[in-house]
Structures are given as C-alpha cells and as structure tokens.
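Readers of this paper often ask what the protein records in our data store actually look like. An entry from our holdings is shown next, in its original layout:
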Amino acid sequence: MAITDKIYVKNHRRIGSQLETRIPRSAFSGATLDLLYSGDGLSKLDDATQERVLEFAEDFLDCDCESNPYCGHPERKFMRYLLD
C-alpha cells in the first residue's frame, strides 16, 4: 500500500453532504478526484471549501499529462512536499 493511499480528505462527510453524495476518504482516489473536479462538483461547495480544493489542485494537480490527475504525478508531488 502506498503512503498516498493514507492521505485523507478532511471533513469528507461534510463535503459529501454539500455534493449530495458519498465520497471516498482518500484524497487521491479516482472517485474523489472525479467528484471534486469534474462536472458541477466544485460549484456545489461552500466558498471556504472551494478555496481549499482549488489550492490543493494548484499545488498537486497541475501537470500537463493527458491522463492528469490519474497519471501518478500528483501523488509524487505530494510525497516531495512531505519530504521537503
């Protein structure tokens, strides 16, 4: 199991409530990324939560890969952040 599998979304139940669905706790789960960054998911969140989600995206999900955010680069960037 990769250490990034243990990176959890803070207040995932509250976020799920705002999105009107259940979301996985894992921050790098494909389902979590889909719910937060595709469709109107982001627009359903309150302003403070939107800001935190966008900051996370700017910090870790900004690669130019065609398969972003599922390319593995976000997890590697997060690991570098932890180790620095």
Q: What stands out?
A: DSSP finds four helices and no strands in the chain. Residues 47-60 form the longest helix (14 residues). Residues 3-83 form one domain.
